[in-house]
């Protein structure tokens, strides 16, 4: 199990690719929730019923139709250690809910990790597709194609008036959650972010932190997603998110340009200070690390810092999380030990990147 690539590598293969507007949109995601008509929802199912669902859906996943899309590895959650499940959460490949409930839970993971199909999470089936940059329509197209494969082979819980039935009422209807992960440091620095976020919520979208509902916007990363799943078609939901995200991108670009024109010296000072601290600090908590990595990523995107790949920043945002720190250093850690190791890892990664690309 320790040889599995999803545990060893912080960045999934799809994350190493560039997408449209990738200086602002880190990733685009579509997740579809479905349940089988013939079985109780996971929260009410017995072990035997949950096992039947798992075996049924895994058999569909093993079909040639799904493998026309990509090669998939099937992983039963009961086979994974607590640390391995935590690493999967930190890479956004499974939800915290599935990580905590490994009873008859399973994951079908594509070779490049852009598709993860969760079994017996809050719902029987959750199909997640991830793309780099601003590609929400492409993510929806792939998720819809995979959904069709499962729908043809199973009998979904569906009501003519309410749509697809889900464990949580907020997902009833289309069962779709679409989101874009956005890096918005300029809107935060220019104090425009609260106004933008208020406007977003007024058009039926939600804003969350890096790990979804209830999480903090670490490192100026915001997840913008649809709130409404009932009363709109799938395409209307995707189009609404696409339109709003496009406007946010333009606002962020304008804020970055304005900072360069009006306060470049202060901006450079902030970015270079953060780079210097990241390069030399011996202890650092996750909140400070996230903020300073955000500053450096902004500096890279604006061309103020050269010789450091933006992929290193993406990788460090994952590597600095508690599960990966323990995986990288092969040791259990308390909070202070994690802060020391986090600083050490960041120093090492930045030094390696500088050596590979010719310095700052």
UniProtKB/TrEMBL annotation:
Top-level division of the source organism's lineage: Bacteria
Positions of ATP binding: 27-31, 92, 126, 177-181, 208-213
Annotated InterPro entries: Arg_Kinase, ATP-guanido_PTrfase, ATP-guanido_PTrfase_AS, ATP-guanido_PTrfase_cat, Gln_synth/guanido_kin_cat_dom
Biological processes per GO annotation: phosphocreatine biosynthetic process
GO cellular component, one term: extracellular space
Molecular function GO terms recorded: ATP binding; creatine kinase activity; protein arginine kinase activity
Residues making up the signal peptide according to the UniProt record: none
Keyword terms of this UniProt record: Allosteric enzyme, ATP-binding, Kinase, Nucleotide-binding, Transferase
CDD domains: bacterial_phosphagen_kinase
EC number, UniProt record: 2.7.14.1
Catalytic reaction annotation: L-arginyl-[protein] + ATP = N(omega)-phospho-L-arginyl-[protein] + ADP + H(+)
Activity control: Appears to be allosterically activated by the binding of pArg-containing polypeptides to the pArg-binding pocket localized in the C-terminal domain of McsB.
Motif (RDXXRA motif of the pArg binding pocket involved in allosteric regulation): 338-343
Pfam family, one: ATP-gua_Ptrans
Coiled coil location: none
Phosphagen kinase C-terminal domain residues: 24-255
HAMAP family: Prot_Arg_kinase (MF_00602)
Family per record: Belongs to the ATP:guanido phosphotransferase family.
Classification via PANTHER family: ARGININE KINASE 1-RELATED (PTHR11547:SF38), ARGININE OR CREATINE KINASE (PTHR11547)
Function as written in the Swiss-Prot or TrEMBL entry: Catalyzes the specific phosphorylation of arginine residues in proteins.
NCBIfam families: PRK01059.1-4, PRK01059.1-5
Protein name: Protein-arginine kinase
Organism, as annotated: Paenibacillus nasutitermitis
Top-level taxonomy: Bacteria, Bacillati, Bacillota, Bacilli, Bacillales
